[in-house]
Amino acid sequence: MLKIVHVNGTAKATTLRLAGRLIGPWVGELRRACEPILARGDSLAIDLSEVSFVDQAGVELLGWLRGREAVLSNCSGFVAELLKG
Description:
This protein is an alpha/beta fold.
């Protein structure tokens, strides 16, 4: 399960805090939560401090988000290693 919490947002910046596992169907849920924010041209920050596991599809999505200028913060050592590859 993945919990996505809208922490704060201004007119041009949004922060989402994730908790749980970024796997399977939750990868699509995160994409659907992020796409409208990015489509508006707003900046996006993703707080990963409470993410315990990320599967390959989740790693690919996080890489895609980083490529779209999203800031990924508070990664665990495990998630940070996955994102290096």
